[in-house]
Amino acid sequence: MPGAAKxxxxxxxxxxxxxxxxxxxxCLEALRAARGTLLRCEVFDYGAERYLRDGTTxxxxxMERFRDEFHAIFLGALxxxxxxxxxxxRDILLAMRFGLDLYVNLRPVRLFFDRLTPLRGRTTQDIDFxxxxxxxxxxxxxxxxxxxxxxPDEVAVNQDINTRKGVERIxxxxxxxxxxxxxxxxxxSDKSNVLRxxxxxxxxxxxxxxxEFPDIEATHLYVDVLAMQMVRAPNQFDVxxxxxxxxxxxxxxxxxxxxxxxxxxxxxxxxxxxxxxxxVHGSAPKHAGKDVANPMAAILTAALMLxxxxxxxxxxxxxxxxxxxxxxxxxxxxLGGELxxxxxxxxxxxxxxxx
Length: 355
Fold this sequence. Notes:
The chain is of the alpha/beta class and about 350 residues long. Helix content is about 40%, strand content about 20%.
């Protein structure tokens, strides 16, 4: 890739994605000014407005350009009621997820302050784990169809796709992450007592891979039990690995344990390749442009991105500024504060500049 700077492609997308991406960019500019971090951020206007204006989603060759010329992609959010079938979202987000083979969806679940969790008696020492969600297969692969659509005899089918390659690489990624980060436990979650074929594959592969990591405690929970245990005793988890649909659900549950989607960062990864980073909360069109959205998920996603492109010290500065802002009550209303989106971004950026 040209030059020494880390090149980041920003796609603000739709709704509050535009609002919160602006604040994430603001914080990265503050980081560059304060620490001389070599970042080159380029904004692309792909989203609902562009699609409605001229039909553009991702132009031919653009995904390959992102892959070859950028270190990371930051996506604000996609979704607009004027496009009810989400055609632009499929052509942008899913095209990159599958085209770049981003098979790991990584969701940190970390409690910053005791007061943010709804769980009685739980502290920051109790809630600190990561969810590894398989990101390219399962029921979300889009394989299926209709028979006699629109009639009383209609049949709708979605097929659950699980390949040996896909299952093994997400499980292996979870174990490798645990070992690299000094984590002691990996829990695999499935529903193999009911899904006797697809999740039998998950069972077999999990136990085979686990034998290669004797230093890591390997456990299994059915997904309904996992959900209960995340609420009852979250301190038992370090790394959770599961399929696409279950990972989608339990990672949102995890977000609710640490303060809500306004603090939920995520990464769509192919280790060693250009990957995509996005806050989890969606586009929330009814709140767009009203200066009410919490930008901290976007800012924390930027920190997660910095870590994964080889700038862990800069990532720590950004996360530290978010932690301090929360501690000082400089937040939006969902976290108990009185500030708007821009004011929160301004405050976090000021803390970064003073670091």
